[in-house]
Amino acid sequence: MVDWLDPLDAAMMTAEVLSGPLNIAAVLILSPPAGSGSGYVQDLHLRALAGRDPVDPRLRRYPHRSVGTGGGWVWREADTVDLSRHCQRISLAPTAGRDDLWRLISRLHAEPLDRSRPLWISYLIDGLDDGCFALYVKVHHTIVDGVAGLQMITDTLSADPRCRSTPQLYAERPRQPDLCDSRGELHVPNPVAIARSLAGAMASGVGLIERVVTGELTDAVASLVGDTTVAPLAAPYTRFNGKLGHARTVTAGTWPKARIQAVQQKAGVTGNDVVTAVVAGVLRRWLLDRQELPAQSLVAICPISVRPRGQVPKELHNNMFGLWLCPLGTHLREPLARLDLIHRSMRAGKHRVARRGSGASLMLLASAIGPTVVLPMLPFAPRVRTGYNLPISHVPGPAAEMYWNGAHVEEIYPVSAVYDGQALNITTCSYADRIGFGYVAGHDILPDIGTLIPLTEESLTELESALGMQ
Q1: Which CATH superfamily does the domain covering 7-154 fall into?
Q2: For residue 423, what pLDDT is reported?
Q3: Which of 51, 199, 420, 434 sits between 20 and 30 A of 243, alpha carbons compared?
């Protein structure tokens, strides 16, 4: 029996020729256990190559097309997986720092996966000057989405620092299909996840159409009389809405969760509102420094969960989220004014998405999403207003300190995919008592991405000072 790729995955494989690699990834930065010795990372690598665990079926598949398939894409399954080609090790030069690590990750993230074998690869990267090492895992978006990929990695972690026999990340184990934790947080703002959910939403009947029409009228009125609702194609064009180019650039940094929570409590907003306001401050300063700050507010596309707490969907791609266009207030000088706008907009978004349901909210934004990601593919893409400028996601990581074969997990960062028209992606990840900010972009769009890390500290400090906390 022929196992055809579903239409969206087949389209992704074809579109990749134009848009570049559609890879998603994660980076874990770890510190070896005390007294582990200089051969610790090498031992981890050899253990991965030993292949004592059966390989997850998702990580045995690869796409194929030929004359025999009529030019269509089908899945094939490898009888054996050559782990030496999928589990690799890189040693950085002596005294290498975090900037060197992120330059390496940027290069690795831009490299396409070999379509002739299963579409995943992992790298153990040692040699950091602080004694830490990194685990970088990359998977094609047709294999898993960002949430499932991060879950695949966190399933290998343990809260017990003495545990030295956690399963390999490629090992087959029971699936965890839940897309969010008990707090209902979610990470889905990319065209692939959106398209999957839109496809399901389109078949939901007359009641859905009624909610869409009602929602269109409501949002049209709200966008005229208020500042919390963004009309379709009302975002200003920025460099983030251009073509990617071939190279990627990645950077990340971690901040204490207590600082975010202190601002949250003082301002009477949510933690995600604070994080989004910090990002807004970063973007405002970066664009202002380059004399590219639009007079209008930048707009972020943000996911909003509509799943009752504790509910686990029967299918991985069930429509359990909506989307909201959130103005970031980048046109406002005062940081508290930006935070207030973001808070009011997201509060309105949660109310409207909950009332309409996920299907209607997704279809309402189709007119904003389509032009954002389609127009840049044209040979002479017009620099006109767009649906949104970038996605901002907040991903819940493990709530407790975790270990991987005895190594302490210091930091966790999802590394998202970027696309033409959506050339900057910002994802934050909570982990234990800290929050990581991860930035991914096309190198041609944001070549100095490392400057966003000090700007993140500057933006958070600006909020604290405005609230009299400094």
Answers
A1: Chloramphenicol acetyltransferase-like domain (3.30.559.10)
A2: 92
A3: 199
